[in-house]
UniProtKB/TrEMBL annotation, chain A:
<keyword id="KW-1003">Cell membrane</keyword>
<feature type="transmembrane region" description="Helical">
    <location>
        <begin position="149"/>
        <end position="170"/>
    </location>
</feature>
<dbReference type="GO" id="GO:0015658">
    <property type="term" value="F:branched-chain amino acid transmembrane transporter activity"/>
</dbReference>
<dbReference type="GO" id="GO:0005886">
    <property type="term" value="C:plasma membrane"/>
</dbReference>
<dbReference type="InterPro" id="IPR001851">
    <property type="entry name" value="ABC_transp_permease"/>
</dbReference>
<feature type="transmembrane region" description="Helical">
    <location>
        <begin position="88"/>
        <end position="109"/>
    </location>
</feature>
<keyword id="KW-0812">Transmembrane</keyword>
From TrEMBL, chain B:
<dbReference type="GO" id="GO:0005304">
    <property type="term" value="F:L-valine transmembrane transporter activity"/>
</dbReference>
<dbReference type="GO" id="GO:0015188">
    <property type="term" value="F:L-isoleucine transmembrane transporter activity"/>
</dbReference>
<dbReference type="InterPro" id="IPR001851">
    <property type="entry name" value="ABC_transp_permease"/>
</dbReference>
<keyword id="KW-0029">Amino-acid transport</keyword>
<keyword id="KW-0472">Membrane</keyword>
<dbReference type="GO" id="GO:0005886">
    <property type="term" value="C:plasma membrane"/>
</dbReference>
<keyword id="KW-0997">Cell inner membrane</keyword>
From TrEMBL, chain C:
<dbReference type="InterPro" id="IPR032823">
    <property type="entry name" value="BCA_ABC_TP_C"/>
</dbReference>
<dbReference type="GO" id="GO:0016887">
    <property type="term" value="F:ATP hydrolysis activity"/>
</dbReference>
<dbReference type="GO" id="GO:0042941">
    <property type="term" value="P:D-alanine transmembrane transport"/>
</dbReference>
<keyword id="KW-0378">Hydrolase</keyword>
<dbReference type="GO" id="GO:0005304">
    <property type="term" value="F:L-valine transmembrane transporter activity"/>
</dbReference>
<protein>
    <submittedName>
        <fullName>Lipopolysaccharide export system ATP-binding protein LptB</fullName>
        <ecNumber>3.6.3.-</ecNumber>
    </submittedName>
</protein>
<dbReference type="InterPro" id="IPR027417">
    <property type="entry name" value="P-loop_NTPase"/>
</dbReference>
Length: 327, 292, 253
C-alpha cells in the first residue's frame, strides 16, 4: 500500500490527469479541423497567471485557476480574430509563433522572474494538508498519512474536473454546435453554404481549446511548486499534438488515450531516455503515413461499444457514447 | 549609426531570406509547410563545421558539402514523410504534422550525435573591419552577404530561364495543369524539396558563421523566423520571401539597437501578428490569396 | 419574383468569367442554366450563394440586395445549393448530414445542448423527424445511419439534395445533379425535382443532359463565354440559332 501511494506515483497520476485535459484542449480545436500549436503557450499563460495571482496578490487557488483559463482565452482572441478568417495553415503558424512570443516574454519580464522561473507556488496538496490539520486530521486517517490523504484528495478533485471536461466534450459533440464543428471539419466551404457561420464556430472552438489549456497549465503550476519558461517550449506543444495524433482526434476518447500512453511511456522508456524525442518524431511520421486518424476513430468506438455493450450499460449511461454513432 | 544598422540588418536578413526561400519553394510546389526545414538547416551547419575542423577543407568546399548533405536529407524527407501522404487523400494538416515529427527526430538525433554544447567555426577571416565611411563591415559579413545574395540571384535566374526552373514554376501555379502539360511533377517535387533543403543547409552555415555558434537547438528559432518571413512575404511568393527576409533582419537589428534586445526573438512574430490584422495576404500577395 | 440578377459581372484577375448577366427566378419555378463547359455556370452559383462577391451588378433575394453577404447568411435567407463535385460531411452519418444542413433553422445554444434541456430535446426530436422525412423524400430513408462517405455515388447526390432542403430554402440551386447517373436514375431525379417544385420551392438547375433540361425546366438561361446568349422556354431556346451554333451543335458528339 505504502509503495503504491508514494508521492512519486501520486504525482504521475496527477500528470496523467493534467495531460488528459491538454488532450481535450487540442481535441476541442481540432474538432473544427483547425490545428493549434499554441496550446503550450496557452498553458504557460494560465500557469503564470494563476501562479502570480496566488503568489503576489494572495488570490485563493480555486479562483486563480479559472482566472488562468480566462487569461489564456483573452490572448487567444488576439491570434484567433485575424487568423480564423483564413485557411488553417495561418492559425497553425500564428499559434506556433504565439507560443514562442509567450516564452520570450516570460523569459524577460521581471514579474515572471525571467529564466529562473517562479518557485514556491502554493501547492494544492499542501493547502489541502493545511485544511486537514485544521480539521484535526493532521496525523492522517487510518493507514493513510496526512500527506497521502491530501494527495489523494487533490487527485480526486482533478479527476472530477477531468470528468466534467469529458462530459462537456461528449455532450458538445452530440449537440447542434458539435454538428456544426463536425461539418466544418469535414468541409469548411460546404458547411458555410449549409448555413453554418464557420468563422464564428472556428473561433469558439479555438477559444475553448485555449481556455482548457490555460486551466490545465494553472493546475500544473499548483502541483509542481515551480514553473519556468522552458516548461512550455515548442517540445511541449509537439507533445500535446502527439496526444491527438496518436490517440486520434475524431473522438474525445482518442486524445485521452493518447495522453495516457504518452505520460506513462517515458516511465517505461527510462533506460533509453535520450532517444525519447526521436521516438516521438518517428511516431508522428508513422501515424500520419499508416493511420492518420489515430488509434481510435468512430468505427473503433462503435465496434468496442457493440462488443462490450453489456458491461458499459451497467456503468454510467451518461458519459458513454450512444450506440448510434459516438463521435 | 543608422547606415551601420541597415548594413548589419541586411547581412542578417539575407540569411533569413535564404531560409525563407526554402519554405516558400516547397510551399509553392506542394502547398505544405515543411516544419523540418529548420533542422535541415542545423544539420547543414554541423556538416560544414565537421568538414572545416576535422577535414580542414576551405569554407566554400565545406558549404558545398553542407548543401549536398542538405539535399540528401531533403530527399529522405520527401521519401519518408511527404510522398507516402500524397498517395492517400489525407487532411492538409497531415504533412505539417509528419514534418514536425521529422523536425524533432532530427533535433534529437543531432543532440545525440554532436552533443548539446555550442560549437564554433575556427577563425578563418581577420577580424578587421572594412571602413566605408558611412558604415563598417567585417570580412565575414561580406562573405555572408555575397554568398546569400549570389545564391538568390542564381536561383532567380535558374527558375526564370531553365527548363527545370520553368517546370517548378508551372507546378507551383497549378500542379494538375502542369501534369497535363507533360511536366513530370513527381520529379519536380523531389528536386524542389532537395533544392530547398540544400539552400537551407547553406543558410545554416552562414548563420553559424554570423553568430559564431552551431548547436542542435538552433533549428527551431531559425525555422520560426523562416516561417514568419514566409507569411510576411506571402505564401509561395519567391520575391516576397527575399524582401521579407531582409525586412525582418533590419527590424531585428533595429529592435536590438534601440532598446528591446532581449525581445529580439519575438520581433518576427510580433511583425506577422500586426501584418495578419492589416494585410492577411502578406506584404506582396494579391488580395484573395489568403482567403481559402 | 424571388431571385433577381441585375447586370452581374465577375472578373478573376482581369479575366471576365461572367459579364452583364441578368435574369429572374420566380417562386416555384424550375429554371435551367445551360452552356458549354467553362461558360461560367458554376461561377454563377458561387456568386448567388456568396462564395464570391460580384465585381459589379446586384443580386437580389426578395428585393433585398445580397451581394457581399457571407454564404451562411444567404443560406439563412433562403438559398441553398449542391455542388458539382459532391461535398458531403463524410465522417458523419447521412442523418447527421441532413441535421447539420438545418443548422440555421434551429436555435439551441451551447448551454442547452450541454444540459439537454426540455426545449433542446424537443427541438432535436423534431429535427430528427424532419431529417428522416427529407431522407425519405430523396429516397434513401434506409441509409440514415450510414456514414456519408460510404454511400454509393448516386445516393450521395441525393443526400446532398436532402441536406440543401434541410435549410428550408425558397430557392434550391442544383449543380449537375444528374452527372454520372444512368437513365433510370436520371428519371428518378426528374421526379424528385418535380416533388421539390411541388413543395413550393424554386429550383435553379445546371445540367448537361439536354433531354432532362428540355422536359423539366419552365425556362432556360443559356450562357456562352460568360455571356447570356438566350433566355426563354425550352421551345424558344431550341429554335434560337445562336444557341444551336454555340452549344447544341457542339454537344452532339
Amino acid at each position: 500500500m505504502d509503495s503504491l501511494l508514494n508521492p512519486y506515483y501520486l504525482q504521475i497520476v496527477m500528470f496523467v490527469m493534467i495531460n488528459a485535459m491538454l488532450g481535450i484542449s487540442i481535441y476541442l480545436t481540432l474538432a473544427t479541423g483547425q490545428l493549434s500549436l499554441g496550446n503550450a503557450g496557452f498553458m504557460s499563460v494560465g500557469a503564470y497567471t494563476s501562479a502570480l495571482l496566488t503568489l503576489k496578490v494572495g488570490v485563493p487557488i480555486f479562483l486563480a485557476v479559472p482566472a488562468g483559463g480566462i487569461a489564456a482565452c483573452l490572448l487567444a482572441a488576439v491570434i484567433g480574430v485575424p487568423t480564423t478568417r483564413m485557411q488553417g495553415l495561418y492559425l497553425a503558424i500564428a499559434t506556433l509563433g504565439f507560443g514562442e512570443v509567450v516564452r520570450v516574454v516570460a523569459l524577460n519580464l521581471k514579474v515572471t522572474n525571467g529564466a529562473l522561473g517562479l518557485s514556491g507556488i502554493p501547492s494544492m496538496s499542501v493547502m489541502t494538508g493545511k485544511g486537514l490539520s485544521e480539521l484535526g486530521l493532521g496525523s492522517g486517517v487510518g493507514i493513510l498519512s496526512a500527506q497521502q490523504l491530501s494527495n489523494i484528495i487533490v487527485i480526486v478533485v482533478l479527476a472530477l474536473m477531468l470528468a466534467c471536461l469529458v462530459f462537456f466534450a461528449l455532450r458538445l459533440s452530440k449537440s447542434r454546435m458539435g454538428r456544426a464543428f463536425a461539418a466544418i471539419k469535414a468541409d469548411e466551404q460546404a458547411a458555410e453554404v449549409s448555413g453554418i457561420n464557420t468563422t464564428y464556430y472556428k473561433l469558439v472552438a479555438f477559444f475553448m481549446g485555449a481556455f482548457v489549456a490555460g486551466l490545465a497549465g494553472a493546475l500544473a503550476a499548483h502541483i509542481t511548486f515551480y514553473i519556468g519558461p522552458q516548461d512550455f517550449s515548442y517540445h511541449k506543444a509537439v507533445e500535446i499534438l502527439l496526444f491527438a495524433v496518436l490517440g486520434g482526434s475524431n473522438v474525445v476518447w482518442g486524445p485521452l488515450l493518447g495522453s495516457f500512453i504518452l505520460t506513462l511511456l517515458p516511465e517505461v522508456l527510462r533506460p533509453v531516455a535520450e532517444f525519447r524525442e526521436m521516438i516521438y518524431g518517428a511516431i508522428l511520421v508513422i501515424m500520419m503515413t499508416f493511420r492518420p486518424e489515430g488509434l481510435l476513430k468512430e468505427g473503433t468506438i462503435r465496434f468496442l461499444w457493440a462488443k462490450f455493450n453489456w458491461r458499459a450499460k451497467a456503468e454510467d449511461d451518461n458519459s458513454q457514447p450512444e450506440p448510434e454513432g459516438g463521435r | 549609426m543608422l547606415w551601420q544598422q541597415v548594413v548589419n540588418g541586411l547581412t542578417l536578413g539575407s540569411t533569413y531570406a535564404l531560409i525563407a526561400l526554402g519554405y516558400t519553394l516547397i510551399f509553392g510546389v506542394l502547398n505544405i509547410v515543411n516544419m523540418a526545414h529548420g533542422e535541415i538547416f542545423m544539420f547543414g551547419a554541423f556538416v560544414a563545421l565537421m568538414l572545416v575542423t576535422t577535414f580542414k577543407v576551405n569554407l566554400l568546399v565545406a558549404m558545398a558539402g553542407a548543401a549536398l548533405a542538405g539535399a540528401v536529407l531533403g530527399y529522405l524527407l520527401e521519401v519518408t514523410a511527404l510522398r507516402p501522404l500524397r498517395k492517400r487523400a489525407v487532411s492538409h494538416m497531415a504533412p505539417l504534422i509528419s514534418t514536425i515529427g521529422v523536425s524533432i527526430f532530427l533535433e534529437s538525433l543531432a543532440l545525440n550525435l554532436f552533443g548539446a554544447q555550442s560549437q564554433s567555426f575556427p577563425p578563418m577571416f581577420s577580424g578587421k573591419l572594412l571602413d566605408f565611411g558611412l558604415f563598417q563591415i567585417s570580412v565575414i559579413q561580406v562573405v555572408i552577404l555575397a554568398i546569400s545574395v549570389g545564391l538568390m540571384l542564381v536561383l532567380k535566374f535558374w527558375l526564370d530561364r531553365t527548363k527545370m526552373g520553368k517546370s517548378i514554376r508551372a507546378t507551383s501555379e497549378n500542379i494538375d495543369t502542369a501534369a497535363i502539360l507533360g511536366v513530370n511533377t513527381q520529379r519536380v517535387i523531389t528536386i524542389t524539396v532537395m533544392l530547398a533543403s540544400g539552400l537551407g543547409a547553406v543558410a545554416g552555415v552562414l548563420v553559424g558563421l554570423a553568430f559564431n555558434a552551431v548547436e542542435p537547438t538552433m533549428g527551431i528559432p531559425m525555422g520560426f523566423k523562416g516561417l514568419a518571413v514566409l507569411i510576411l512575404g506571402g505564401l509561395g511568393n519567391i520575391t516576397g520571401a527575399m524582401v521579407g527576409g531582409l525586412l525582418l533582419g533590419i527590424a531585428e537589428v533595429f529592435s536590438v539597437a534601440y532598446g528591446a534586445s532581449s525581445y529580439r526573438e519575438a520581433v518576427a512574430f510580433g511583425l506577422i501578428m500586426v501584418l495578419l490584422f492589416l494585410r492577411p495576404q502578406g506584404l506582396f500577395g494579391s488580395p484573395g490569396n489568403g482567403g481559402r | 419574383m424571388i431571385l433577381a440578377l441585375e447586370n452581374v459581372s465577375k472578373n478573376f484577375g482581369g479575366l471576365a468569367a461572367l459579364s452583364d448577366i441578368s435574369f429572374n427566378v420566380n417562386a416555384g419555378e424550375i429554371v435551367g442554366v445551360i452552356g458549354p463547359n467553362g461558360a461560367g455556370k458554376t461561377t454563377l452559383f458561387n456568386l448567388i450563394t456568396g462564395v464570391f462577391s460580384p465585381s459589379s451588378g446586384t443580386i437580389r433575394y426578395r428585393d433585398k440586395a445580397v451581394n457581399g453577404l457571407k454564404p451562411h447568411k444567404i443560406t439563412e435567407l433562403g438559398v441553398a445549393r449542391t455542388f458539382q463535385n459532391i461535398r458531403l460531411f463524410g465522417h458523419i452519418s447521412a442523418l447527421e448530414n441532413v441535421m447539420a444542413g438545418a443548422h440555421c433553422r434551429i436555435k439551441a445554444n451551447l448551454w442547452q445542448g450541454l444540459w439537454r434541456t426540455k426545449v433542446e430535446r424537443k427541438e432535436e426530436r423534431e429535427l430528427r423527424q424532419k431529417a428522416k422525412t427529407l431522407l425519405q423524400l430523396v429516397g434513401i430513408a434506409d441509409e440514415e445511419n450510414t456514414l456519408a462517405a460510404s454511400l454509393p455515388y448516386g445516393k450521395q447526390r441525393r443526400l446532398e439534395i436532402a441536406r440543401a432542403l434541410a435549410a428550408e430554402p425558397e430557392v434550391v440551386l442544383l449543380d449537375e445533379p444528374a452527372a454520372g447517373m444512368n437513365e433510370s436514375e436520371t428519371e428518378d431525379l426528374h421526379g424528385l425535382i418535380k416533388e421539390i417544385q411541388k413543395l413550393g420551392k424554386a429550383v435553379v438547375l445546371i445540367e448537361h443532359d439536354m433531354n432532362l433540361m428540355m422536359n423539366l425546366c419552365d425556362r432556360l438561361v443559356v450562357l456562352n463565354f460568360g455571356k447570356k446568349i438566350s433566355e426563354g422556354t425550352p421551345d424558344v431556346v431550341r429554335e434560337n440559332a445562336e444557341v444551336i451554333e454555340a452549344y447544341l451543335g457542339k454537344e452532339e458528339e
